[in-house]
Amino acid sequence: LVHFAYQESRWSGWWPGGGHSRLSQLVASHEYPVPFEPNVATQVFVRLDDLTGGHVSGAFLLTVSADRTGDERQLVVATDIGLSVRQSDKDMLVWANSIRTAGPIADVMVRVYSAQNQAAAVGVTGTNGIVRFTGDFAATGSVPYVVVAERGSDLSYLRLDGAKLERDRGTDGIAYLSRGCEASVFTDRGIYRPGETAHVKAI
Q: Which of 125, 22, 8 is nearest to 61 (CA)?
């Protein structure tokens, strides 16, 4: 998974041909008729559960090809595990919540990998869905690159270099306020469905 995530970030959808054959296995293959009109964008919706013949979860490399065109590949994740990460120089907080219910998920195995596929940290979420890692990752040469979460057959991941992370600021170079106050406003998560309530907090 680290290999695929790294290639995705570097090649923007184009993958060196055949390089992944020893790291994955073919799950399904299907040919779809696509209506064609010159200069008109066409959408074709693909259901992973139709391709696999049942319930599907995990990470998949979806490849699309057509006559006289090249291949396009994209990592697709079918999961109920939503991941949020807060990271500072020596701390990382990972929160796993259910995408269906928005509630925390306990007993999720969380692994942090470097871009060189070296395990930087391993932990399990508590009843609040949170696991915290501490340590100077840069000093050990294992700078966090991908967070992978697993629970049963479900799997999710978050590539840190491609995510907008809230990074804790240090106090170096920041003058203390002599008067007034400084505030931070944030929500409980970054994405909401239509009609959901957004909980806003301020510190």
A: 8
Integer Cα distance of 80 and 61 in angstroms: 18
Per-residue pLDDT of the chain (203 residues; tens, 9 = 90+): 656 665 555 544 444 555 555 556 677 777 878 777 888 887 878 787 777 777 677 777 777 877 777 777 777 888 899 999 988 778 889 999 999 898 999 999 999 988 787 888 899 999 999 999 988 877 777 788 889 999 998 989 888 876 654 545 554 455 666 677 777 888 888 788 888 898 888 88
Distance from C-alpha of 46 to C-alpha of 42, rounded to nearest angstrom: 13
Beta-carbon count within 10 A of 37 CB: 7
Residues 6+ apart with CB under 8 A from 158: 83, 85, 146, 147
Q: What whole-number distance in Å separates Cα of residue 201 and Cα of residue 203?
A: 7
Query: Nearest CA to 158 among 86, 105, 103?
Result: 86
- b/e burial code for range 109-140 (CB count within 10 A of at least 16 → b): bbbbbbbeeeebbebebeeebbbebeeebeee
Contacts of 96 (CB under 8 A, 6+ apart): 81, 82, 83, 104, 105, 108, 110, 125, 129, 130, 131, 149, 151, 156
CA atoms within 13 A on the CB side of 197: 2
Q: What is the pTM of this model?
A: 0.64
